[in-house]
Amino acid sequence: MDISIDTAAVMADLDAIAACSSSPPPGVTRILYSAADMGARAYLRARCAEAGLDLREDGLGNLFARWPGSAPDLPAVASGSHIDAIPDSGRYDGTVGVVGALEAIRALKRAGFAPRRSIELLLFTAEEPTRFGIGCLGSRALCGALTPARLRDLRDAAGRSLEELRAEAGFHAPLEDVQLPAGLYHAFVELHIEQGPLLETEGLPIGVVRAIAAPASLRVSLRGVGGHAGAVLMPGRRDALLAAAEIALAVERAALSTGSPDTVATTGVLRIEPSAVNSIPSAATLEIDVRDIADEPRDAALHAIREAAVEICERRIIAYTLDMLNADPPATCAPAVIEAAVRACAELGLHYQMMVSRAYHDSLFMARICPTTMIFIPCRGGVSHRPDELSSPEQIAAGVAVLARSLAALSLA
Ligand code: GLV
Ligand code: MN
Ligand code: MN
User: Fold this and answer.
1) How many angstroms separate the Cα of 298 from the Cα of each of 211, 245, 254?
2) Closest ligand 1 atom to 358 CA
3) 2.60.40.1930, 3.50.50.60, 3.40.630.10, 3.40.50.11270: which CATH number matches 7-213+330-412?
């Protein structure tokens, strides 16, 4: 079958979505349920409808765009990713997997392919943890790992609830209906930029993912005593920021102490109150991201961070709460789906390597409900979560070609 990828169409889709941003180019910021997010969703809905797909959205805004196969009752083959983007990041993370899946479907249609199993594009709500502190919100809920009760408890940094925000965005369907029924999908394949340097270094166009690392995140809330920066003398101060600063250093020490070179830990959020130059910080919130490709060293680092935080807060007489937002096990990809991707590479004459994903993805959760793998393409310098993130049109087209062939083969299986 001759499947030709319309690279210009993919790049036009990427451009249109990158224009939906609340920060100036080249940076992209697309926070869940913001005007930028809603604009990008509207664009994609229109493209999916134009491609003749049947659309469904759930109460969180997860979007399902289906191309019915000749055996519509068989479990479908799915592909997709996210379009939300962390503050001042790039235009490829996630979005390549969404517009790539859309183009894979359009290309298969143009080639006259007749799917047996339906092929479905998934747009996951909020893979990034920016708004609610927890990554993979949509896919977590789809696979039942986030219950309606926990979803109802979620508040953003401004204190606004998920319930309120999703209603404002027009998503009213019951949260009870978000979890997918068992056996809905035969396979899931996510196309994504690598977000690391290995493919570029090796000069390879494709990575096929065999496992996804174990992420965790921890929120530490500190309350000290504020006061006048000039009038309160140093002895006896209970400065919440200084406790936070010590904790951030303990996070670095913890990551370096597990004995595993794969342990990484980052204090990516530090908010202080009242945040005025002449006022002693009375409160601080840290959000800490801890990962390893195995969960034991990751958990050892988490334990060390907790112990350090307790010691620091007791010594500085700071009230604290530690909330483990998530601590997910790693995912193993499915041999049959990996095989489909590997065969697609062979048919296209593209060299590939098997890889572990150090970043997390919606695939981490899709792997819990169906056989899953990911297709990686190189990105310049391995750079991601930055405005200068870049994959070339040719690199993207190669990934879409592998995805299209993989979906076709899995649809006939
Ligand atoms: C996903 O964006 C991640 O942080 O791995
Ligand atoms: Mn990301
Ligand atoms: Mn991503």
Assistant:
1) 16, 21, 10
2) 5
3) 3.40.630.10
